[in-house]
């Protein structure tokens, strides 16, 4: 009898579980219970172009604050005949909290009319959207912007127009919208130190919309769009490519064309120099633009743009027009990859490095922020919110500060030194607190046809092009290359916390008229594993500014100030601090052909003999923000 009873109970459990599952409400049913859903609203801009917009708002006659997300990405409800529920899940969450949730495609993207221009979408589109939404009879006149990456990059520049309805911002991973701030002149992650970042080359292959692609007729009615969206999502499917092979093609300007990819803005953008006037015409925020909006900034240590993102937080806090805006800038810095905040776990892996429990309740933080600024409610969460929350790797813990870098950080200089053979990790390069008296330069040959390959790092959007993808990876095998100079400190007798911007000054001579200098900051563990923390590059022709190109002369020694690196890391007792110096980090950055040419149209380079000097008047060094507690 026991066996039949066991079978019966099992079947009953399966039946009850299946019945419960069948009775679960679909996301559409859940939305229809609490929300008015109005999809494919064609919002008019001042020039007559209409932008496709989906609106989800609470049922009833009330007036509601708006959480607004504008994006170049596809949020269509249907794809390949199936429901895409991600946007609806987000909408449901906000509607249940008493907000209207509005998501809109940039002009020229999917069902939106007009022509698309990455980093160059007219600022007036954002302003006109605020104007339209704030005048709807269901709006309370308060709008907050929310998004990560390309869904965040437009927020800052539009905020400079100071529309009264824009009450607060939540930009996340927003480096693609930072044109110039302080020492960072990246023009939306297109450059770093004047060298090209190749992420956009790869990203645009799959995102760039060919002007010859079929488009819907202008003026199409909403009822027709609602029907069409069920089987036609306007999202072209490009053939997959080997990104590593694709990015190796020369000249750079032909990479997408060589893959038979879409025509578009890339071929024009790749020809722009770092100070080209066109960078200042579109949607990038530059530090000479006004800013006067409360903002909660979210940054990650292993994003492509942690440095400029943090610098923009500081800029807004110090230079916002009003005191109320200056007093309401907040910052979170997480130890994750680009836009991977919510993927942190009890054992967060960033590359091959376990940085511990890096979870944070982002939903609670963002909701509390909008409750204050869009609803006018008091919030205990915000009242107790520290100005800066940052995660210190190595110690593997969240910390707080009122400023960045922390007030306790003391800028401490460490000098590069060697006996003239710092090549490879087996060389005699060292990092020391003592000034070297004698200059014994370290020399290596940089061949652009055999560059140092990127391995992990602070990257985004490069597909399979970068070995190990992003994050922290053991660099010790890479450090066996002769064209990598390695400088390592003595074993630390006590732990050191480094939190803030890391300054680097390298003295270079070369037999080429132009070349690049690269640097990495590394935490060396007792077992010899060398985990990268941040990296940067400088194209030497721009060492005197991005508005001019100045060539080198053979035999001369030049000071090269690097774009700052950024981190918060605890170098534990028994660890060592290391930096690597070379002239390439490819394909994270494009290759300098060492000729003084345009780079983007070159197919052949020359080998450069480069030397790093340290000693006497040529004190190559790094300056670390060491936190004294």
Automatic annotation (TrEMBL):
UniProt cross-references to InterPro entries, sorted A to Z: AB_hydrolase_fold, CocE/Ser_esterase, Galactose-bd-like_sf, Xaa-Pro-like_dom, Xaa-Pro_dipept_C, Xaa-Pro_dipeptidyl-ppase/CocE
One Pfam family of this chain: Peptidase_S15
Top-level lineage group: Bacteria
Keywords of the record: Hydrolase
Gene3D superfamilies registered for this protein in UniProt: alpha-amino acid ester hydrolase ( Helical cap domain) (1.10.3020.10), alpha/beta hydrolase (3.40.50.1820), Galactose-binding domain-like (2.60.120.260)
SMART domains: PepX_C
Keyword Acetylation among UniProt keywords: no
Residue ranges of domain Xaa-Pro dipeptidyl-peptidase C-terminal in the record: 367-623
Name by which UniProt lists this protein: Xaa-Pro dipeptidyl-peptidase C-terminal domain-containing protein
């Amino acid at each position: 009898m026991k066996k039949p009873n066991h079978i019966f109970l099992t079947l009953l459990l399966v039946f009850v579980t299946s019945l419960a599952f069948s009775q679960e409400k679909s996301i559409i049913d859940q939305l229809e219970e609490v929300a008015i859903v109005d999809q494919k609203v064609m919002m008019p801009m001042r020039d007559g172009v209409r932008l496709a917009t989906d609106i989800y708002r609470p049922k009833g006659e009330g007036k509601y604050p708006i959480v607004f997300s504008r994006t170049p990405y596809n949020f269509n409800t249907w794809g390949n005949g199936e429901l895409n529920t991600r946007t609806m899940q987000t909408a449901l969450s906000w509607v249940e909290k008493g907000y209207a949730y509005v998501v809109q495609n940039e002009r020229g993207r999917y069902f939106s009319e007009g022509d698309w221009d990455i980093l160059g979408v007219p600022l007036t589109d954002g302003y006109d959207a605020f104007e339209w939404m704030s005048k709807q009879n269901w709006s309370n006149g308060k709008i907050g912007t929310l998004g990560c990456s390309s869904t965040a990059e437009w927020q800052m520049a539009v905020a400079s127009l100071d529309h009264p309805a824009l009450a607060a911002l939540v930009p996340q991973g927003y480096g693609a919208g930072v044109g110039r701030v302080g020492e960072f002149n990246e023009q939306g992650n297109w450059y770093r130190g004047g060298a090209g970042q190749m992420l956009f080359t790869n990203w645009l292959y799959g995102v760039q919309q060919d002007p010859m692609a079929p488009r819907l007729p202008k003026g199409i009615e909403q009822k027709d769009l609602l029907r069409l969206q069920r089987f036609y999502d306007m999202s072209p499917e490009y053939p997959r490519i080997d990104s590593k092979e694709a990015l190796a093609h020369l000249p750079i300007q032909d990479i997408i064309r060589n893959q038979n990819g879409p025509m578009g803005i890339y071929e024009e953008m790749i020809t722009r120099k770092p100070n080209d006037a066109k960078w200042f015409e579109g949607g990038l925020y530059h530090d000479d633009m006004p800013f006067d909006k409360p903002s909660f900034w979210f940054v990650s240590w292993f994003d492509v743009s942690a440095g400029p993102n943090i610098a923009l937080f500081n800029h807004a806090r110090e230079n916002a027009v009003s005191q109320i805006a200056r007093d309401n800038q907040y910052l979170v810095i997480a130890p994750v990859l680009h836009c991977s905040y919510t993927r942190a776990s009890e054992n967060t892996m960033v590359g091959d490095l376990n940085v511990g429990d890096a979870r944070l309740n982002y939903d609670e933080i963002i909701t509390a922020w909008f409750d204050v600024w869009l609803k006018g409610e008091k919030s205990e969460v915000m009242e107790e919110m520290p100005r800066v929350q940052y995660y210190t790797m190595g110690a593997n813990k969240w910390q707080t500060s009122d400023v960045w870098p922390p007030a306790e950080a003391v800028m401490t200089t460490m000098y590069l030194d060697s006996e003239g053979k710092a090549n490879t990790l087996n060389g005699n390069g060292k990092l020391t607190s003592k000034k070297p008296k004698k200059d014994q330069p370290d020399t290596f040959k940089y061949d652009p046809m055999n560059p140092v390959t990127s391995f992990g790092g602070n990257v985004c959007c490069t597909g399979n092009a970068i070995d190990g993808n992003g994050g922290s990876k053991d660099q010790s095998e890479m450090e066996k290359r002769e064209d990598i100079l390695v400088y390592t400190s003595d074993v630390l007798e006590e732990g050191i916390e480094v939190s803030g911007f890391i300054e680097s000054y390298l003295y270079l001579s070369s037999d080429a008229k132009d070349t690049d200098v690269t640097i990495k900051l590394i935490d060396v563990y007792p077992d010899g594993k060398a985990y990268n923390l941040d990296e940067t590059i400088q194209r030497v022709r721009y060492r005197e500014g991005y508005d001019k190109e100045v060539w080198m002369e053979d035999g001369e020694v030049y000071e090269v100030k690097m774009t700052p690196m950024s981190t918060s890391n605890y170098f534990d007792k028994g660890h060592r601090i290391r930096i690597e110096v070379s002239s390439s980090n490819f394909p994270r950055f494009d290759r300098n052909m060492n000729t003084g040419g345009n780079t983007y149209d070159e197919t052949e380079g020359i080998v450069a003999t480069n030397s790093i000097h340290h000693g006497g008047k040529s004190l190559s060094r790094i300056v670390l923000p060491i936190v004294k507690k």
